[in-house]
Automatic annotation (TrEMBL):
The keyword Oxidoreductase applies. It holds the Pfam family SO_alpha_A3. This is FAD-dependent oxidoreductase. Residues 16-331 form the FAD/NAD(P)-binding domain. GO terms for molecular function: oxidoreductase activity. The keyword Oxidoreductase applies. InterPro entries: BFD-like_2Fe2S-bd_dom_sf, FAD/NAD-bd_sf, FAD/NAD-binding_dom, Metab_Enz_Cyan_OpOx_G3PDH, Opine_Oxase_asu/HCN_bsu, SoxA_A3. Keywords: Oxidoreductase. It comes from Paracoccus aestuariivivens. Residues 396-471 form the SoxA A3 domain.
């Protein structure tokens, strides 16, 4: 029985046994596994089709696109097809803007918008599969037209086979940068140079973990990407600073190495310095976060099977720590089995054996992760920009110099900084500035990012129209608060007249 496509908020049930948020590899695997255990499942995702970022548009791309995007992209087809064949409700184009964990007298509750209407639904368990987001790379000129994050360019390539025209410069560090360089080259793009900004001081530390990477399933793919990129593209390592300049759009990229200053003419500049867990919804739900020094980011605290510190909420995939698409799919199945076991208040021996096998597979797929984290460790000058005119918060247009002045006044943390500058209070809710703000404060205060912390978020974590809120079914408590009394004929699931 195929998934049931939900297109309007009113079509959703009041309660599901399991709600999965995110339709990437972790979310699809979680929904498929959960549905096989005869429980009622809902998967909601912002995108119009399943796949997430890694398998974006996989259900409608032509064979030529699969050849262009590579074998790792094609690996998502069976995963997507299994999900589309499972017995689950699927809400594409849904925005989840609120999440509350379980309480002694209530289950987890999700606030979402679907088809232009908002509503709340309850769940026995919620599985967060929100995936990763690109680490911001604020450099002078990064807000100019023609400059974008590498992930955005890859979205365009996967969704519409769109390839930037003219001279392209890629800058930053991380495997995705080399993957995209090869994909764009195969698509006929004119790549002038790839500027590698990796922190070379970490290379010796990375080499110590090379044996683990050599025993991982990623060695051949990683070597192939590097060899192909170096053969076809001018790769410049040891880049210490970058600035993009131009009148109305990007025209030139200025950078320096140990030896000298360089200038390259460019029409498009793609920036990237790794990915980090997308924690906005996790944070807003009150899940405990911890600083991961290896991956240099905050992530939720989870146990061995994905349970967070908030009852009823489980986290899987890159949203719980970067591990890649294959690991995310396995982690999604683990999370689903954890959720179904928790709901049944018992342990099926077969389920326990399957769970153990999945955990072994997950550990195998994490082999060599430490090597990659160190090899592509972002350099400090790119994590905490020193040029005072560099914009850090794009929503509120807060520059690094202004931010450093406010920190110098004795602001204790990122959340207090909001009251000074509104940094992190725009539509993105800090997704594009939170890591940079933490890094700058840590540098200036002589602390670790773990001590500085990051933004605390509240619902709604995504933009929500007042009309959507007003159209939600009213509770007796809400009517009592506004009118002073609740009507005697109140029906909880009936919309009240305005």
């Amino acid at each position: 029985m195929p998934v049931k496509q939900m297109t309007a908020a009113a079509d959703l049930a009041d309660r599901y046994d399991i709600v999965v948020i995110g339709a990437g590899p972790a979310g699809m695997a979680a929904a498929t596994e959960a549905a096989s255990h005869d429980v009622r499942v809902l998967l909601c995702d912002e995108n119009p089709a399943p796949g997430g970022q890694i398998y974006r548009a996989i259900t409608r791309n032509r064979p030529v696109a699969f050849k262009l995007l590579g074998a790792s992209y094609a690996e998502g087809l069976p995963l997507v097809q299994r999900f589309l064949d499972c017995r689950a409700d699927y809400a594409a184009g849904a925005t989840v803007w609120s999440l509350q964990g379980a309480h002694p007298e209530s289950e987890p509750e999700i606030g979402l918008t679907l088809g232009g209407s908002a509503r709340r639904i309850r769940a026995g368990r919620v599985i967060l599969a929100t995936g990763a987001t690109e680490r911001p790379m604020p450099v002078p000129g990064w807000t100019l037209p023609g400059v974008m994050m590498a992930g955005a360019a890859q979205i365009a390539l996967k969704s519409a086979s769109a390839v930037p025209q003219g001279r392209i410069v890629l800058a930053g560090c991380g495997p995705l940068l080399y993957l995209l360089a090869n994909q764009l080259s195969d698509a006929g793009a004119h790549i002038v140079a790839l500027l590698d900004t990796s922190d070379r001081r970490q290379r010796w530390a990375a080499i110590q973990h090379l044996p683990s990477f050599a025993a991982s399933p990623y060695l051949r793919k990683g070597l192939s990407l590097l060899v192909s990129a170096y053969r076809r593209i001018k790769v410049i390592g040891g880049v210490q600073d970058i600035a993009v300049s131009g009148q109305d759009r990007a025209e030139k990229v200025r950078f320096s190495t140990r030896k000298k200053q360089h200038v390259i003419e460019a029409d498009t500049v793609l920036l990237h310095q790794g990915v980090i867990p997308a924690i906005n919804l996790t944070s807003a739900a009150g899940c405990e976060l911890v600083w991961d020094d290896a991956q240099h980011c905050f992530r939720p605290v989870v146990d061995g099977v994905g349970r967070t510190s908030v009852p009823g909420i489980i986290c899987a995939g890159d949203g719980a720590g970067i591990g890649g698409a294959r690991h995310a799919a396995v982690a999604g199945r683990i999370a689903a089995m954890t959720a179904t076991t928790d709901l049944r208040i018992g342990t099926d021996p077969d389920c326990a054996r399957q769970l153990s096998a999945l955990q072994r597979r997950a550990r195998y797929l994490l082999r060599g992760r430490r090597f990659l984290d160190l090899l592509y460790h972002p350099a400090p000058q790119f994590r905490a920009p020193r040029d005072p005119d560099t914009i850090v918060c794009r929503c509120e247009e807060i520059r690094a110099g202004t931010l450093r002045q406010a920190v110098g006044l004795g602001v204790p943390g990122p959340n207090q900084l909001k009251t000074f500058l509104r940094c992190g209070m725009g539509p993105c809710q800090g997704r594009m500035c939170a890591p940079t703000v933490t890094e700058i404060m840590a540098e200036m205060q002589g602390k670790s990012p773990a001590e500085v912390g990051t933004y605390r978020l509240r619902a709604p974590v995504k933009p929500l129209r007042l009309a959507e809120l007003a159209a939600m079914p009213h509770t007796p408590a809400a009517i009592q608060a506004v009118a002073g009394h609740a009507p005697s004929d109140f029906q909880p699931n009936r919309k009240e007249s305005p």
